[in-house]
C-alpha cells in the first residue's frame, strides 16, 4: 500500500478508493487511525499522546499538500509524497 509520508515511526497513507470527508490514515506501533486534515482523529485506536500530537502538527503544516492529494484522488491521478515532520 502506498505511503504519503513517514516520520518518527508514523506511517501516513492515502488510498485511491477513498470516500468523503477528506482524510488520511496513520499507523503507529500496530495502531491505526483516520484523521481529518486538521489532524483530528475521526476513528481509530492510536493511544500515544505523543504520536497524536505529531500527527496533528504534521497535518496542520501539510494541509495544502493533503488537499492536493485528495483532489488528485478524485481525478484518479497519482498521489504525491509529502515531506515528513522534522
**Overall number of domains:** 1
Question: Could you tell me the number of beta strands?
Answer: 5
**Rg calc:** 12 Å
Strand arrangement, largest sheet? 1-2-3-4-5
What is the overall number of helices? 2
Terminal Cα separation, in Å? 23 Å
What sort of overall outline do the alpha carbons produce when their principal axes are compared? globular
Helix and strand pattern: EEEEEHH
Give the helix/strand class.
alpha+beta
Helical percentage: 25-40%
Fraction in beta strands: 15-25%
Low-pLDDT runs: none
* Main sheet overview: 5 strands, antiparallel
List the topology elements.
Layout: E1 5-7, E2 10-13, E3 24-28, E4 31-35, E5 41-44, H1 49-61, H2 63-75
List the main descriptive attributes of the protein structure presented here.
86 residues; 2 helices; 30% helix
Folded structure, characterized:
The protein is built from 2 helices and 5 strands, in the order βββββαα. The chain is an alpha+beta fold and 86 residues long. It has one domain (5-75). It has a 5-stranded antiparallel β-sheet, covered by helices on one side. Strand 3 and strand 4 form a beta hairpin. It is globular, with a radius of gyration of 12 Å.
Briefly summarize what is shown.
It contains two helices and five strands; from the N terminus they run βββββαα. Strand 1 and strand 2 form a beta hairpin. It is globular.
Amino acid at each position: 500500500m502506498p505511503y504519503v509520508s513517514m516520520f518518527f515511526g508514523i506511517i501516513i497513507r492515502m488510498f485511491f478508493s477513498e470516500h468523503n470527508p477528506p482524510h488520511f490514515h496513520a499507523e503507529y506501533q500496530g495502531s491505526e487511525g483516520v484523521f481529518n486534515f486538521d489532524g483530528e482523529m475521526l476513528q481509530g485506536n492510536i493511544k500515544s499522546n505523543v504520536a497524536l500530537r505529531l500527527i496533528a502538527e504534521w497535518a496542520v503544516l501539510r494541509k495544502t499538500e493533503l488537499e492536493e492529494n485528495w483532489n488528485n484522488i478524485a481525478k484518479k491521478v497519482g498521489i504525491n509524497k509529502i515531506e515528513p515532520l522534522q
